[in-house]
Amino acid sequence: MNTFFCSDYSRQIGENVIGTATHYETYILVECPPPWTTEAFNSKWVPKDLRILVEEVKHAKLPMRFLLIANDQSHKVEQTTLLIYQKQKGLNQGYQKHEFQLTNIQQVAGFVKRFLWGSIPEYERERSITRDILVCTHGSHDKCCARYGNPFYFYAQNTIAHLDLENVRIWKSSHFGGHRFAPTMIDLPEGRYYGELEQESFKSILTRTGDINCLNQVYRGWGILPIPLQILEKELILHYGWDWFNYKVTGKILEQSLDNNTVLAELTFAKTTGALYTCQAKLIKDESKALEIKSSCNAKQSAVVVNYTVASIWLEAQKVVTLSA
């Protein structure tokens, strides 16, 4: 009997979770009651045309991620929630939500195609502003997500209710990477990833209060940014505190060595006052912190993980800009 749990092992060896958020332009979240099979879109409630669409997107290597989501009412309701989150251009705070209530999951594939072609009328969109928390509970994909994701989801519902937070929804989600950091979650519309969570750090993330240094243990990175920029962004969070989450940000890689060992990265951000700053940093892969890990409970072989570290950083004030809402 295999008693290896990748999440336990990652914690034991002290793996740093930063720089492990996956980078997508679009998330397509489809409500579908569990149980889900190992490959979620092979589950029995998923229609064939949706399965084919997911395969086509994967084959074309489009920067889109399809996920199944569910809550405790999903098997009872007479409709299917479809959430499409799209990355915004320029200075931004994450993704823009488009929400639709469809009659059933059979309608999803055709509807998504029409949406991507830009032919969905405005009146079909739900206008509510929500914060959608996705917790991976996909135990058939990796047992750590059942062992740690399910209890976290259960207690997180109580945490949200106790804090009396309006417009915060929590969903069980199919696999979105990083199960060795279970329990792991995505916070949308921002698109920030977290792992190794417990209720205290979750409460801080929800309310943006408490010790900002808790993010050293749980912050996987911001999904709108490539990995080196995720590491730079965390340094700026620790410097500016929870205020940073109200800033609008954009970033790019300026230079990269051929072996990818050295990166020159740039983040531009606008404070709520309208003051604009540019931060540049040199990041290097730190071989001294290389770790040999198994990325999942079922992994046959270990892999060596080497992450970037900020070697130097400099900040320059630009100008005052007028920020639109």
Could you write a compact summary of the structure shown?
With about 325 residues, the chain is of the alpha+beta class. Helix content is about 25%, strand content about 30%. The chain has a nine-stranded mixed beta sheet.
Question: Secondary-structure map with pairings?
Answer:
Elements: H1 6-12, E1 26-31, H2 48-59, E2 64-70, E3 80-87, E4 95-102, H3 108-116, E5 131-136, H4 143-163, E6 168-173, E7 185-188, E8 192-194, H5 199-207, H6 215-218, E9 219-222, H7 227-240, E10 248-256, E11 262-270, E12 275-285, E13 291-293, E14 303-305, E15 308-320
Parallel strand pairs: 1-2, 5-6
Antiparallel strand pairs: 1-3, 2-6, 3-4, 5-7, 7-8, 8-9, 10-11, 11-12, 12-15, 13-14
Give the C-alpha Rg. 20 Å
Structural class: alpha+beta
For the report, how would you describe the main beta sheet?
Answer: 9 strands, mixed
The span between the termini is: 55 Å
| Overall spatial form | globular
Describe what this molecule looks like in 3D.
This protein is of the alpha+beta class and 325 residues long. It has 2 domains: 6-219, Glutaredoxin, CATH 3.40.30; 227-320, Nuclear Transport Factor 2, Chain: A. 23% of the residues lie in helices and 31% in strands. The strands form 3 sheets. Strands 4-3-1-2-6-5-7-8-9 form a 9-stranded mixed β-sheet. The longest helix has 21 residues, at 143-163. The termini are far apart.
Short descriptors:
2 domains; alpha+beta; Nuclear Transport Factor 2, Chain: A; four-stranded antiparallel beta sheet; 7 helices; Glutaredoxin; about 25% helix; about 325 residues
